[in-house]
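Researcher: Next entry: Homoserine O-acetyltransferase (Petrocella atlantisensis).
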Amino acid sequence: MKIMPIKINNDLPAKQELLDENIFVMDEHRAHTQDIRPLKIVIMNLMPLKDQTERHLLRLLSNSPLQVEITLLVPETHQSKNTSTDHLIAFYTTFNEIKEHKFDGMIITGAPIEQMPFEEVTYWEELTHIMEWTKTNVTSTFHICWGAQAGLYYHYGIGKYDLDEKMFGIFKHKVVKSHSPLLRGFNDEFLVPHSRHTSIHKAPIIANEFLELLAESDDAGVYIVKSVDNKQIFVTGHSEYEADTLNQEYVRDKNKNLPIKMPINYFPGDDDHNKPVNTWRSHAHLLYANWLNYYVYQVTPFELE
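Model: Predicted structure:
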């Protein structure tokens, strides 16, 4: 079966890891030989371990016959502490360098800052300019976790609230709008990882005529929300996570002596000596493939500019 060629920088470290998984990664040289306009997707990577997030997202963007050209973006008003400057210089760009261009899709990732007021985030003003820009320059924008909370707050004035303890683990979800193309092929119930200290209330989403609630969890709350014009998608969980990602966060927090409980429904037998099993992979691939197909490819103009 032919898998989507992801067009990325030839030297990006994630490329070899994806090739090792038999994911078809197209470098710039081969892409130029195909008479196909690739979907232009820009990823605003706000996560600390940027190379890990690159791998997570590129893997999911691979499950389609479409060619995708990736642009990696970081805030100009924030200095990353967990990713080398050499990596950022080699593979990332800033908003000022792309703001005159149009894109088929954009992904705004989460960030481990959800307990801070939005206005106190160092790059908040820059991010609001970018989110405003997406209204006219991006066909559809996919927001993840804190990025989803930030997007709902900026676009619709829906705030977040602190949880009594971290929402941490693998939670069962249910489809609310079964006929939504974004959920096409979903099981009635499916599993999703969550890792966050804040949440959003359901009531203001239901009350807003410009928003639709597509999926939720009895335990983890609101999961997928979209704007009625399909230009903004908000996903509060981390479907892109690998099997071991929550374990890495769990060990990190324990080593820092932070108040952290074992992830719910994650380690087999609730024993953290057991290797975690990925129970959400198929849902994650379907979610991103549906977004690319129904909300980007089928509605984006052929001539972007």
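Model: Note for the record: The domain at 6-297 is CATH 3.40.50.880 (Rossmann fold).
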